[in-house]
Amino acid sequence: MYGSIYKITNKANVFEVLDRYEGVEEHLFKRITVNAHLSSGDTLKTWVYIYNRSIADKKRIYSGDYLN
């Protein structure tokens, strides 16, 4: 999967807004921590939102880049 990484300074406020936007209370997405592998070769512990419903009828995006 491809994405952007942002440094968050006010974690409580930011996650309150993002959790609401991503539908965490409705169990549409859930927020988890993962190790991101950077193009530099480094890894960084990050938060991501993952879809929390069945994907059985969804088309797989083999490139990992849902925008392209």
UniProtKB/TrEMBL annotation:
Gene3D superfamilies: Gamma-glutamyl cyclotransferase-like. InterPro entries: AIG2-like_dom (IPR009288), GGCT-like (IPR013024), GGCT-like_sf (IPR036568). Pfam families: GGACT. Residues 2-67 form the Gamma-glutamylcyclotransferase AIG2-like domain. This is Gamma-glutamylcyclotransferase AIG2-like domain-containing protein. It comes from Jejuia pallidilutea.
